[in-house]
């Protein structure tokens, strides 16, 4: 009986220690997230975008903003600043989730169109394009090619070829 109680206590102790282990997700820094701005391919960090002045953003953008656009820009900056902590990390779950993906998941229209419309040549093109979305583009190119093949097989299976004779 004593052994049974001892074993039971040890099992209870182990079960509570294993369940209390927590994993900490690394927080994303706003200065590491680069967004395209302007027509010449310039990029600006999310932290800089939250603090930049309207005149500086107009120069970066290459065009002057209307009054309503400036007010909307200032309101968006305020929301963005509220979602960035003092240490420069994002505190919004939505922003963390969005920027964690960074184009790695989700439907990619270009990749699907390459595979569906161009077939194997489209898949080759998807492999040759090098950017942040390459992995997702290649995946959707293969899916598009698979959908094309499936539709083609359905058409062949349901077509009556008796009119050829």
Describe the structure.
The protein is mainly α. It folds into 2 domains: 30-101, no CATH class; 109-157, no CATH class. 61% of the residues lie in helices and 5% in strands. It has 8 helices and 2 strands, in the order H-E-E-H-H-H-H-H-H-H. It has helices at 2-19, 46-51, 54-61, 67-82, 93-101, 109-118, 120-128, 134-158, and strands at 34-37, 42-45. It has a two-stranded antiparallel sheet. Helix 6 (109-118) packs antiparallel against helix 7, helix 6 crosses helix 8 (134-158) and helix 7 (120-128) runs antiparallel to helix 8 (134-158). It is flat, with a radius of gyration of 27 Å. The mean pLDDT is 83.
The count of β-strands is 2
**Biggest sheet layout:** 2 strands, antiparallel
The rounded Rg comes to 27 Å
Sheet/helix structural class: mainly alpha
Strand content: under 5%
Order of helices and strands: HEEHHHHHHH
Number of domains: 2
Give, in spatial order, the strands making up the sheet with the most strands.
Answer: 1-2
Please tell me what the overall shape is. Answer: flat
Separation, N- and C-terminal Cα atoms: 88 Å
């Amino acid at each position: 009986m004593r052994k049974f109680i001892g074993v039971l206590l040890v099992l209870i102790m182990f079960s509570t220690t294993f369940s209390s282990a927590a994993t900490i997700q690394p927080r994303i820094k706003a200065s590491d997230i680069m967004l395209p701005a302007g027509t010449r391919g310039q990029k600006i960090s999310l932290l800089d975008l939250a603090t930049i002045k309207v005149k500086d953003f107009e120069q970066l953008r290459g065009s002057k903003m209307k009054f309503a656009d400036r007010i909307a820009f200032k309101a968006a900056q305020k929301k963005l600043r509220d979602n960035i902590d003092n240490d420069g990390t994002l505190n919004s779950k939505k922003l963390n989730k969005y920027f964690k993906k960074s184009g790695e998941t989700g439907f990619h229209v270009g990749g699907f169109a390459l595979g569906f419309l161009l077939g194997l040549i489209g898949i080759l093109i998807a492999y040759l394009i090098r950017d942040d979305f390459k992995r997702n583009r290649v995946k959707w190119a293969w899916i598009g090619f698979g959908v094309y093949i499936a539709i083609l097989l359905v058409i062949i299976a349901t077509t009556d070829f008796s009119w050829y004779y």
